[in-house]
Design a protein that fits this description.
heterodimer, A: about 525 residues, mainly alpha, B: about 500 residues, two-stranded antiparallel sheet
């Protein structure tokens, strides 16, 4: 007992420690050598890589098995445990953060004025929060690491300083505060119900047959869903999403769409896993929220004319799909939800990477306007093909087989629990989703020489887009072609890597599913 | 042996992908080379498919252990005719495109999409795992969407966007509902293997569950078939699609729906299908009348043939619903017959539309028998088969379907099905009416202007082969009946028990 209070195994904690140490190292390096901006990125990528390698040991473990540390003495409970699902989510969070950094790689000409160290360390800090929350098993670290994953993103959104960025950051901050309040309440309720600070099945099981404490536990779970709902942008807590995505710099929007979502789902799964062995009844709340979220997200995405806003609403819709399997509480549902999230993150990152590359080659105004994607397949065949693959994966149609398999996985627990109505709602949303993504894809593959007045008749949306397309500069292709601006190599690397990953996982989705355990 | 089957899938997959990602030039030489490459690929695939049909290999490989999905492919008597039909028509559309090059976009993408449609259709008919069946079912969607949206009739872009969008959205709705049904079936039966599911004959599944699952699957597949009132995507899609798209859509894609009903509903869920069969038969017969009546007044020739497809598929639905061996045989025969006849008619009408500049029947044109006897002959044979003339391929399936409906399985409501059979006979009268109307309008007469070319080269050889198929299968229907009988008997023996 004279030993340390808890045992610490730094190796197991490495996925969390590496980005955290990296964040500190970047700040130190910035103080020491001010001129080397690229070094920050190198340090950051290195720490993310170390963290990613450290997660590998936990991948594919059988259910129930986990790498644990921070255990109480005497073989007691552990405050950190990373099984296969948590490790896979950590890996995804780290790789997504690395992708964000590639997308925001500094340009030679750009005078950022020392901002890079701040950006990089904030990204790393948020990533450390994301990996920590996936492994957190006690209320304290769960709550703190979830906030660590959230708060830096507020600063990241605001840093650009533009008016839209500030309003996005304010929306995000307000949401984060409300969400934190709810989660703190949920933690208190959990403790009241179970008298345990641990988010463990044992704690939950002790309460199952207690008629007084059980409702409190259920209430705690519902409040958790609400609190996480803000972060996952579930309806009705989604309103901040398009604001923040549109205001933020593009790489940060990608970060919000990927790593932040991973953190939020990881936090939710920690709680769901704790209550799963209770044989809890179907979580009607999640079923309703999932159905509403995907429907509203898709319908709003159908109405967007800006691609970042479209992607933001698509994130909302996809969040509905992510929590859809959780309506049936079970281990299989947890796996399905994580699998869907991984597929979504991969496809969304690719879409963002392509948009980022187009921002660099064609300018932000053109790259963010859906109508300006007309004929992209002819102008940039490679980028357009990558975008098509990403969109089809999100839509869940071959050749994006990963997305299709993810939909199969997500629907399985729903069908197994015989939630027919929810299954039909999901089927209708699959159609709406296809409409959303094909609306974009149709523009991409459209021929450029189509008569403009005909394209105006093509659909109500097209006629809305037409003025911005036709009016300002009918010869807009010419100056761009003359300038022949190339995308930054780092961005192209990001596009290439995520496209390669998506192709490989579409050929063999088991590469993704296998991460979550046999 | 296994390699035959896998190669038959790999060739269109690789060729299609390569064509799509390769150059985007649209010069004549690119077009020629793309055509040669896809012709070679389609011929090789067809040879491998025939070899696989003869050798009957079985593939069983693990793919997604986490979801329990396996690569399971095989051939049996029910899928063999459809496989051959798919492979043969894939050659035909490429040959036909020699004389009618694709308009509206890069030829490589066009041929690549054709290859991918072939891949999806072949994989669907080969699949023996229910989830693989679903994935294969989805593969055809995007290539077909591109064919319609990019290479379709460009006279009215709004209509084209509407038609392609409708096609893809309806089909996705159908296939997602089908996925829900498949997952429920796999979950409750404990296996995803279609043969094991068929062998179990719904044992261990409560009637209530069977009805729910069968309803989901029938609605999902009914969109694809398409069954009235879920058919509204079909006429615009056919009208707008390029000839190759129309042919593959009518002759191959619609077959995937009826094939799915046999594999996923009738075989594994006999009690569930039995409960829903009367309703299914009713919508089938409504489709027969609806399609026939629409054809009597329709003035767009392509749209007319699309409506006639709805009517023909109504006969297939009626046969399926009867629950007897004869009914199922009839449905499968009518399925293939419609594939051959609709392919012939769409090739023909696609060619005519190019010559005329539109497919409007109200415009006075030169009589086909006067100025283009080859096209005229093919048209007469096609519409004669369509109206169910004995001795041609269209006769057997529809005649037998009505016979089966008159004497259905014991657990089916006999009087209802007899009434439906009588109504279906009216449908054949309508078919005669609209077929003769078309022949009167464009085949007979003595106008000889404006002159247009007769079919030659690739077009004529494709038409001639299809006319030959219509005659051969009409005279010797046993070729097809003998292929399917054994596997059909396995299904129905248990259905009627």
């Amino acid at each position: 007992m004279s030993q340390a209070v808890v045992s610490v195994n730094a190796g197991v904690l490495l996925p969390v420690l590496a980005p955290a140490v990296g964040a500190a190292a970047v700040l130190v390096a910035d103080v020491a050598v001010q001129s080397l901006r690229r070094m920050h990125y190198a340090i950051a990528l290195l720490s993310l890589a170390v963290g990613a390698v450290a997660t590998v040991a936990g991948l594919g473990m059988v259910a129930g098995d986990a790498r644990q540390t921070l255990c109480l003495p005497g073989g007691g409970q552990c405050m950190y445990a990373a099984g296969s699902v948590a490790s896979a989510l950590q890996l995804a969070a780290l790789l997504a953060a690395a992708m964000t950094l590639l997308l925001s790689w500094p340009d030679d000409k750009e005078q950022a004025g020392g901002g890079t160290a701040v950006i990089v360390s904030l990204v790393l800090a948020a990533t450390a929060g994301a990996t920590a929350v996936a492994g957190a098993r006690d209320l304290g670290s769960w709550l703190v690491s979830l906030e660590l994953a959230t708060l830096p993103t507020v600063a990241l959104v605001a840093l650009r300083g533009a008016r839209s960025a500030i309003s996005g950051a304010v929306a995000l901050l307000t949401t984060a505060l409300v969400s934190f309040g709810l989660l703190a309440l949920a933690a208190a309720l959990w403790f009241t119900a179970t008298a345990s600070g641990f988010l463990s099945p044992a704690a939950a099981l002790a309460v199952v047959h207690d008629p007084v404490r059980r409702p409190i536990l259920v209430l705690a779970v519902v409040v958790v869903v609400a609190g996480i709902g803000f972060k996952l942008s579930l309806v009705p807590f989604h309103a901040w999403t398009p604001e923040a995505y549109d205001g933020a710099p593009l790489p940060i929007a990608a970060f919000l769409a990927a790593t932040s979502k991973i953190a939020a789902l990881a936090a939710l799964l920690v709680v769901i896993r704790a209550i799963a062995p209770m044989g809890a009844p179907v979580l009607t709340a999640i079923a309703i929220v999932a159905g509403l979220t995907m429907t509203l997200g898709n319908i709003m995405a159908l109405r967007q004319d800006g691609v970042v806003r479209l992607l933001a609403w698509s994130t909302v819709a996809q969040a509905g799909w992510v929590v859809l399997p959780l309506a049936a509480v079970s281990t299989a549902a947890v796996h399905a939800s994580a699998a869907y999230l991984l597929a979504y993150v991969l496809a969304t990152l690719l879409a963002f990477a392509v948009v980022a590359a187009l921002v660099q080659t064609r300018g932000a105004a053109r790259a963010r306007d859906l109508a300006q994607y007309r004929g992209l397949l002819r102008d940039h065949p490679v980028l357009a093909s990558a975008l098509a693959l990403a969109l089809l994966s999100l839509a869940g149609l071959p050749p994006g087989i990963l997305g299709l398999v993810a939909k199969v996985a997500a629907l399985r627990p729903v069908v197994a629990s015989e939630l027919w109505l929810l299954a039909v709602v999901a089927a209708v949303n699959a159609v709406l989703g296809v409409a959303v993504y094909l609306r974009w894809l149709r523009v991409v593959i459209a021929s450029v020489d189509a008569p403009p007045q005909a394209s105006q008749q093509a659909s109500p949306q097209a006629s809305q887009q037409a003025p911005s397309h036709a009016a300002p500069d009918s010869g807009s292709d010419a100056p761009v072609a003359a300038r022949a601006v190339r995308a930054h190599p780092a961005t192209l690397v990001a596009v290439g890597l995520s496209a390669l990953a998506l192709v490989l996982t579409s050929l063999s989705p088991q590469l993704v599913l296998g991460l979550l355990g046999p | 042996m296994v390699i035959l089957l896998l190669a038959a899938l790999a060739i269109p997959a690789v060729t299609g992908t390569a064509l799509i990602v390769s150059g985007r030039g649209s010069t004549t030489s690119v077009e020629r080379n793309a055509n040669r490459l896809s012709l070679a690929a389609s011929v090789a695939t067809a040879a491998l498919v025939v070899a696989a049909v003869v050798a009957r290999p079985v593939v069983d490989q693990e793919w997604l252990p986490s979801l329990g999905v396996r690569w399971q492919f095989a051939v049996d008597g029910i899928s063999a005719p459809l496989l051959i039909l798919t492979a043969a028509l894939s050659i035909a559309v490429v040959l036909h495109a020699r004389s009618h090059p694709p308009q509206g976009g890069s030829p490589t993408t066009f041929y690549g999409c054709l290859q991918l449609v072939e891949l999806g259709a072949l994989a669907t008919f080969f699949a023996r795992d229910a989830v693989i069946f679903f994935i294969a079912f989805e593969i055809v969607l995007i290539p077909m969407w591109v064919l319609i949206a990019r290479y379709g009739d460009s006279h009215d872009l709004a209509a084209r966007a509407d038609a392609s969008g409708r096609f893809v959205l309806y089909t996705v709705l159908g296939s997602t509902l089908m996925l829900v049904g498949i997952l429920a079936l796999v979950q409750s039966a404990g296996t995803a293997n279609l043969d094991a599911l068929a062998a179990a004959h719904g044992a261990g599944l409560e009637r209530h569950t069977q009805v729910i699952i069968a309803a989901l699957l029938l609605v999902g597949l009914g969109i694809k078939i398409p069954v009235w009132p879920l058919h509204t995507w079909l006429p615009p899609a056919h009208t707008i699609a390029p000839t190759a798209g129309s042919v593959l859509l009518a002759a191959v894609l619609l077959k995937m729906g009826t094939y799915g009903v046999v594999r996923l509903v009738i075989a594994p869920l006999p009690a569930g299908f039995g409960a829903l069969a009367p309703g299914f038969a009713i919508v089938g017969v409504v489709g027969i009348l609806w399609g026939g009546l629409a054809c009597l007044v329709e003035n767009d020739l392509k749209r007319l043939i699309a409506y006639s497809s709805v009517a023909h598929m109504g006969f297939v639905v009626l046969g399926l619903s009867s629950g007897t061996t004869a009914g199922l045989q009839a449905a499968l025969f009518a399925n293939v017959a419609h594939g051959v006849v609709s392919a012939l008619l769409f090739f023909l009408v696609g060619g005519l539309k190019e010559r005329w500049g539109s497919a409007d029947l109200a415009t006075a044109r030169a009589a086909l028998r006067e100025i283009s006897p080859r096209l005229g002959l093919a048209l007469v044979v096609g519409f004669a088969a369509s109206l169910g003339l004995p001795g041609l391929v269209g006769f057997w399936g529809e005649f037998l379907a009505m016979y089966a409906a008159w004497s259905p399985a014991p657990d089916r409501p006999q009087s209802l099905l007899r009434v439906l059979a009588v109504v279906a006979v009216t449908g054949t009268a309508l078919a005669a009416g609209y077929s003769l109307r078309v022949l009167r309008l464009i085949w007979s007469g003595d106008r000889t202007t404006p002159v247009h070319e007769d079919a030659r080269g690739g077009e004529w050889s494709v038409l001639a082969v299809l006319v030959g198929a219509v005659l051969v299968l009409g005279v010797a229907p046993g070729l097809l009946f003998n292929s399917t009988i054994k596997d059909v008997a396995v299904i129905t023996a248990e259905v009627s028990r």
